[in-house]
Amino acid sequence: MQFGRYSVHYAVFSDIMHAIGFASQTALQQPALTLPVMATQIHTVVSTLRRRILQGDFVPGDRLVELQLAAELGVSRTPIRLAFETLAKEGLVERLPTRGFRVRAFTVNDLTHAIDVRGNLEGMAARLVAEQGLPAEALATLKACVEEGEALLHKARQNHFRIEAKAWVTMNARFHATLVAHANNPVLASALEHVSKIPMASAAALSLDGDLPELEFTFIERAQQDHADVLDALMAREGARAESLMREHARRSRDNKRQLWTGRR
């Protein structure tokens, strides 16, 4: 079962419905009314916990307790569990050998060094894709990503520059993943997967919490232009240009994340 970009097993569906104030039977009869609410609640919990980790409210090594956080945030344990899974993918928390999660130790320098390496790897991926040529399916996916990004920016301009974070993050991750997948280099993909385990280093880890909407909009607007430029270079089979654009794209991401992190501490 899908809640935006969150996958939830049927076994926890009843708990999810309880988290938003509906009995299980009623929720099952009215899924269209409750699922968007739950997706929003999950996003809110993820954003809150991410912000608290980045601003130092939790010390590296701290164990995150489901019951305590559920009480603090006024939700059930289900959105807390789903938030932990998302934050683990971003590298901010790690699963304990026994049970539960704890905050990972990292510094802003760890983040910036990892993104520098990611930029070189993604640049190489872009060059390989340009040299080999884009398959029709990959081209369609990248074009759809660019079109979706433009639509999200247009909508944000009508909404006080507030980006739909979940939609942008999902699309951005798809754009980057498509590039890497069609580089046809498993060693490169493996190295990139390893680097992306550093907290907030992956293309899928974007700290768009809406705290600084105009600043976030500026960053996303530039990233959208980067995507369009990279696509143009790939279509023209300009390997060196595509590589340079992807490296510069990562460098901007590095600087943006550093600025957002510093501004929240």
What is the fold's blueprint, element by element?
Blueprint: E1 2-3, E2 6-7, H1 13-19, H2 24-29, H3 31-54, E3 63-64, H4 66-73, H5 77-90, E4 93-95, E5 101-103, H6 108-132, H7 136-157, H8 165-181, H9 186-195, H10 213-235, H11 239-264
Antiparallel strand pairs: 1-2, 3-5, 4-5
Helix pairs in contact: 3-5, 4-5, 6-9, 6-10, 6-11, 7-8, 7-10, 10-11
What would you say about this model in short?
The chain has 11 helices and 5 strands; from the N terminus they run E-E-H-H-H-E-H-H-E-E-H-H-H-H-H-H. With 265 residues, the chain is mainly alpha-helical.
Give the tags:
265 residues; mainly alpha; Arc Repressor Mutant, subunit A; Four Helix Bundle (Hemerythrin (Met), subunit A); 2 domains; 3-stranded antiparallel beta sheet; 11 helices; 5 strands; globular; disordered N terminus
Share of residues in helices: 55-70%
Structural class: mainly alpha
Which blocks of ≥5 consecutive residues have pLDDT under 50?
A: 1-33
Percent in strands: under 5%
Strand order of the biggest β-sheet: 3-5-4
Number of strands: 5
What's the shape? globular
Main sheet: strands, sense, barrel: 3 strands, antiparallel
Number of helices: 11
Q: Rg, please?
A: 19 Å
CATH architecture identity of the largest domain: Up-down Bundle
Examine the coordinates and then state which fold CATH places here, giving the name of the CATH topology of the largest domain: Four Helix Bundle (Hemerythrin (Met), subunit A)
Distance between the termini: 36 Å
Give the ordered list of helices and strands: EEHHHEHHEEHHHHHH
How many discrete domains?
2
